Amino acid sequence: MTETVTTPIVRSPSAPPALGGLGLFTVLLAAALPLVDFFIVNVALPTIGRDLAAGEALLELVVAGYGLAYAVLLVLGGRLGDLFGRRRLFLGGMAAFGLTSLACGLAQGAWSLVAARVAQGASAAAMLPQVLATIQASTTGARRAKAMSLYGATAGLSMVAGQILGGVLVAADIAGTGWRSVFLVNVPVVLVGLVLAARTVPETRSQHPEPVDGAGTVLLAVSLLTLLAPLTEGRAAGWPLWTWLSLAAFPCAAWAFAAVERRADRRGRTPLVPPGLLALPSLRRGLVLLVPFSIGFSGFMFVIAVALQSGARLGPVQAGLALAPMAVAFFLASLAGPRLVARHGSRVVTAGALVQGVGVALLALTAWRDWPHLGFVELLPGAAVAGAGQALQLPVVMRIVLSEVPTARAGVGGGVMVTTQQSALALGVATLGTLFLSLVPHQGMRDALVMTLLAQLAGVVLTGLLSLRLPRTVG
């Protein structure tokens, strides 16, 4: 009698879906769009104001409305991607971004433009967290490190390129569209992105999806709005009573948000921002550093656009192209970044802060010495050095922030990082922009620009000091 021994078949867990080269290009293209659109309007604002008869406060809402909706909804967008599928949210968010861009380009009045910009920011908040989450969920090892470095490089380059592209498009006046082309240009890009995404971006989601934290979502939105809305609109509106009441409410809203999140965590529920994520040293320290870096970045971009057009009397093309050396240097330095990180770890961020500090000091010296004769040639040394320093910081910090985030929480981790970045970008325009515009009537354009650049330099020094607390090795 023969006994047959049957060996049970052990099924290995299915491998995570892989993100190919074309898929990575597609998600990075989508990552560029929201950041380009945050900065692309800076050089177009004077033309928009004339065409739509919009005052300064309304023009600031064109920028702030987009930034506020984007920042407030990012964490929720990441959670929804974890819950319903990141590819699905990515495609839906991208399609909505294209439609709202079309609405911005066709707006017939200032308030309709503001409304379309708010909707555009909300659609970007649905799309962008899925980029980081997809990279985290569908790449591993060296490929993930390379993808995160490319994401960081794309983010930084997009912020500079957006301002340059805005100037070129406004001056080109394609088919008589004028400033509208800065929004309409998104439509064909989105159409291409949707076709590529449908073919190349894999579907991923959390294996244990967590429900949406309604109370946390509302309180986070209230916290960000009570801080950012008065800071972005206060100066142009003359600091009415509501701005001071809103700022006074911010600490209370922030405390309530933190208390609700901690209570939800203690009761075994799933908070919007799990305290366990913020307990990760790499994420916590990276986010703290990202704040002064982003404040300085966006504040500089806003102030230099105003100074070059209103003070140095450059046209939109010249004002945009004056920053081309910063974009080129950023791109070239970002290519060397991964090799430097492999050898020196997070000390590359410290070196980058030193280099950026030298660049900002050169820009301040140039503004003081050559005003009002500022242009491509005069700004080239400082802009190039500052751009190289920025490239050695931003991609590395983004890698560090997400290095320890579990794949199951990739969406919310990415949402927290981009919310911090976007809030700081809005704060940069509000704080450094307000400082500059407040100094102009009393100090003159040149001294206001120099003093604002020195304030940014102080932020760069703070960034360098904070970089010393980063984990030495970069995952």
Tell me what you see in this structure.
The chain is an all-alpha fold. It has 2 domains: 21-203 and 272-467, Growth Hormone, Chain: A; 213-271. It is 79% helix and 0% strand. The chain is built from 19 helices and no strands. It has helices at 21-39, 45-52, 56-84, 86-106, 110-138, 141-172, 181-184, 186-200, 214-237, 241-266, 275-278, 281-311, 316-321, 324-344, 347-370, 376-391, 394-402, 410-443, 445-467. α4 packs antiparallel against α8. The N and C termini lie far apart (59 Å). The model is unreliable at 1-13 (pLDDT under 50).
Q: Detail the poorly predicted runs.
A: 1-13
Largest sheet: none
What is the name of the CATH superfamily of the largest domain?
A: MFS general substrate transporter like domains
Q: What portion of residues belong to β-strands? A: under 5%
Structural domain tally: 2
Q: Could you name the CATH class of the largest domain?
A: Mainly Alpha
Q: What pattern of helices and strands is seen along the backbone?
A: HHHHHHHHHHHHHHHHHHH
What's the CATH architecture name of the largest domain? Up-down Bundle
Number of continuous helical runs = 19
CATH fold title of the largest domain: Growth Hormone, Chain: A
So what's the overall shape? Answer: globular
> Could you estimate the helical fraction of the residues in percent?
over 70%
The structure class reads mainly alpha
Kindly report how far apart the N and C termini lie: 59 Å
| Rounded average pLDDT | 86
* Count of extended strands: 0
Q: Over all CA atoms, what is the radius of gyration?
A: 23 Å
